[in-house]
Write a structure and sequence with these properties.
The complex is a heterotrimer of chains A (about 350), B (about 70) and C (about 250).
Chain A (H helix, E strand, L loop, with lengths): L5 E4 H11 L4 E4 L6 H13 L3 E4 L3 H13 L4 E5 L1 H6 L1 H9 L4 E7 L15 H5 L10 E3 L4 H18 L2 E7 H5 L1 E4 L20 H4 L5 E2 L6 H21 L3 E4 L6 E4 L2 H16 L4 E6 L1 E3 L3 H9 L4 E5 L5 H9 L5 E5 L8 H12 L2
Parallel strand pairs in A: 2-3, 2-4, 4-5, 5-7, 6-7, 11-12, 11-14, 14-15
Antiparallel strand pairs in A: 1-8, 6-13, 10-12
Helix pairs in contact in A: 1-2, 1-7, 3-5, 11-14, 12-13
Chain B lengths: L4 E5 L9 H5 L5 E3 L11 E3 L10 H5 L5 E5 L1
Antiparallel strand pairs in B: 1-4, 2-3
Chain C lengths: L2 E3 L17 H16 L5 E4 L8 H4 L3 E3 L6 H11 L4 E7 H5 L3 H9 L5 E6 L40 H6 L6 E6 L3 H19 L5 E6 L3 H4 L3 H15 L3 E5 L6
Parallel strand pairs in C: 2-3, 2-4, 4-5, 5-7, 6-7
Antiparallel strand pairs in C: 6-8
Helix pairs in contact in C: 1-7
Classes of the chains: A alpha/beta (about 350), B alpha+beta (about 70), C alpha/beta (about 250).
């Protein structure tokens, strides 16, 4: 049963959800706009006598998470875009060694040091496997403080279930804004799923030794292992696609947007209704696995799409791939940390519809 | 000195680095003239009766190719 | 017949890929001897580096975690914090520890992390074929210092004495430097390893044993010449002994 709602900042709600999910180790580094999350974890983890370390860098942090995850613990790190770039090698290793862990990215504008205002410029990095090699990991994109908490709580379960990193992809706006949120009860660490592949406690069962490693110098054997992992990815695609639809049936044009862009698009949908125009919103919640099947279905029914992103156009490529030429896909984006307004998105929709 | 130990060399573990030969104070060991299956010329006990079981050969061996038994 | 000197139980009885004469083999054996003596085989975990010791998990008969290059102390931090009653060994070479991983080792040491670092210093990069390492001596040749390490005009910097560097950090409790070039030094190094492991199991940290190690292949020497070079060239600069010892038991 959820508790009563309270007003919280997005970053802190994510922290509270992680604590309740039974996270045993948090390693992070300050970076705007997510530093409140690191500070919240410091307080919460120290109070619960769990492990908190402010690491020397984002790179060190992801590797501490890797070690803790290898030891069977629920472990997490968080950062924002430039810091997530630093974690890419560690993420590649984690995917190559099938380590469950949770990474939170509160996106800011880039490239480079960029700005501290919100953006969605890390979509490619998150969904294409931003590090080297063939891999994917689950990416969940919340649109509100409540959803950020819910998806963080879920992320730990999915990470354990599928033995992979799970990324919660927010942005600076979600991290900083305050909304009402309620939380599930705190999990008992003893009730968490056991990890019989982890290192440690060999003396309890005298099992064979475990090596956590991503090294594989035998091409044929390595290919087999990767194919096995990709077979698991296919299972994930069947089981973990998440999205939300608003007013799709009546819509003459469907916005495709996630996170903060989706809230702006929703505002445009409502404004359009008042003007007698039916617009819809398709909101991917899982960016990987991407809801390609559903978009393909909508395209086959003749729906037209306007993808709205706070970037120069990244998710739109996945929309185009899913639509596969069966329908029209347009793009509207703002970048540099600019958040589009409902008015400008509505104006673009009207321009496309000629109304 | 009394013969205190019986050194035994695992020919297939030995890589013929020769460090044991240098370490032995009693000249018990020398390089074999017959190679092992890896192509290395392993160390060989040539004067086992001189072994005082000091353990030096075992101590410097990088391949744990030597076992010393108590006599 | 009673075995006086035999194969440690926690070391797998297989031939290693390490070159003939390489110090890694001796160091692996010492670690396993101490683990056997302390009865810790099923409570030991090694984080092994990128470098020649990438192979270490083939030889140690206990759990291992293999992290990205240089991040070994960070991964060891994660492991040891989650499994504080286990023996965690952070095994690194000079590239892993003193080049790409400088931040990780300094901060793990500074935090007083309770794992033991075994730092294998062979003054060269082994696995990748003999490039200059942070510990390469002035004048010593390497593929990336073909005329010898030159801190002057060529701006190649000076060799780093890691034990001394870390000794200024409040979190470091035991920093020792040994060598495996002759039997006496091997025995002394084993004592340092034992002392460090015992400190770890008592809950003290940060402990490290730096071990000067011969690399015949990349020094372009035979094994005999290489152990001579450790004595003639490395030991005068990298002083052997317990560089820092502020362990409770030592007071």
């Amino acid at each position: 049963m959820a508790e009563e709602k309270r007003l919280m900042k997005g970053n802190e709600a994510i922290g509270e959800a992680a604590l309740r999910a039974g996270v045993r180790a948090y390693f992070g580094y300050p970076i705007t706009p997510q530093s409140e999350l690191t500070a919240y974890m410091a307080q919460g983890m120290i109070d619960r006598k769990r492990t908190f370390i402010q690491a020397e860098s984002e790179t060190s942090a992801i590797n501490m998470v890797y070690g803790a995850a290898a030891a069977g613990a629920r472990a997490m790190t968080s950062s924002s875009s430039p810091g997530i770039s630093l974690k890419q090698e560690g993420i590649s290793y984690a995917c190559g060694a099938d380590m469950p862990l949770v990474i939170v990215n509160m996106q800011r504008s880039g490239p480079g040091l960029g700005g501290i205002s919100p953006s969605q410029g890390d979509y490619f990095q998150s969904t294409r496997g931003g590090g080297h090699g063939d891999y994917y990991h689950i990416v969940l994109a919340p649109k509100s403080v409540q959803e950020a908490a819910d998806l963080t709580y879920l992320a730990f379960d999915l990470a354990d279930k599928w033995r992979m990193p799970v990324m919660v992809l927010g942005d600076g706006l979600i991290g900083q804004m305050m909304e009402a949120v309620s939380f599930p009860p705190e999990r008992e660490v003893a009730s968490l799923p056991k990890k019989d592949w982890a290192v440690g406690h060999q003396a309890d069962t005298h099992r064979e030794i475990h090596h956590i490693s991503s090294l594989n110098l035998d091409p044929a054997g390595f290919e087999k292992d990767i194919l096995k992992r990709y077979a698991r990815y296919e299972e994930i695609k069947k089981a973990e696609v998440r999205y939300e639809e608003v007013n799709i049936d009546k819509a003459e044009l469907v916005f495709v947007a996630y996170g903060t862009s989706s809230r702006v698009a929703l505002g445009a949908v409502e404004m359009a209704k008042e003007a007698g125009i039916e617009l819809g919103l398709f909101r991917p919640i899982s960016l990987w696995p991407f809801p390609e099947k559903r978009i393909a279905e909508l395209a086959a029914r003749g729906k037209r799409f306007l993808t709205v992103e706070m970037s120069m156009g990244q998710m739109v490529e996945d929309v185009r791939l899913a639509v596969n030429g069966k329908s029209d896909v347009q793009f509207y984006g703002r970048t540099g940390g600019v958040v589009p307004s409902e008015e400008e998105i509505l104006a673009e929709a009207r321009r496309i519809l000629g109304r | 000195m009394a013969n205190k130990g019986k050194p035994e060399i695992d020919r297939e573990r030995c890589k013929g680095c020769g460090l044991c030969i240098r370490a032995c104070p009693m000249k018990v060991l020398s390089l074999d003239e017959t190679a092992n299956s890896w192509g290395y010329y392993p160390s060989k006990v040539v004067a086992g009766e001189k072994c005082i079981a000091c353990g030096n050969c075992y101590t410097v061996c990088p391949d744990v190719a030597i076992t010393i038994y108590k006599l | 017949m009673e075995v006086l000197y035999g194969h440690p139980k926690s070391l797998k009885p297989i031939q290693s890929k390490y070159c003939p004469g390489c110090g890694h083999g001796i160091i692996h054996r010492l670690i396993c001897e101490v683990i056997d003596e302390m009865g810790l085989q099923e409570r030991s975990i090694i984080t092994n580096p990128v470098g020649c010791a990438i192979w270490a998990d083939l030889y140690f008969d206990f759990d291992s975690v293999q992290p990205p290059h240089g991040r070994t102390p960070a991964a060891a931090t994660g492991v040891k914090r989650m499994l504080p009653d286990h023996l965690v060994i952070c095994y690194q070479g000079d590239g892993d520890l003193a080049a790409i991983g400088t931040a990780e080792i300094i901060h793990a040491a500074n935090r007083g992390e309770k794992f033991t670092t075994i730092f294998v210093n062979n003054a060269i990069y082994g696995m990748t074929g003999g490039q200059m390492a942070p510990t390469t001596l002035v004048g010593q040749k390497a593929t990336t210092a073909p005329y010898g390490r030159d801190p002057g005009e060529a701006g190649m910097g000076y060799p780093i004495q890691v034990c001394e560097l870390l000794s200024s950090l409040g979190g470091t409790k035991y920093l020792a430097r040994g060598a495996v070039d002759n039997a006496a030094n091997v025995r002394k190094t084993k004592q340092y390893i034992r002392k460090a492991f015992e400190a770890q199991m008592r809950g003290e940290g940060f402990t490290m044993v730096e071990i000067l190690s011969q690399c015949p292949t990349n020094w372009h020497m035979n094994p005999g010449q290489s152990v001579d070079w450790v004595e003639s060239d490395m030991i005068p600069f990298y002083k052997l002994g317990e560089i820092k010892d502020t362990l409770e038991a030592s007071r």
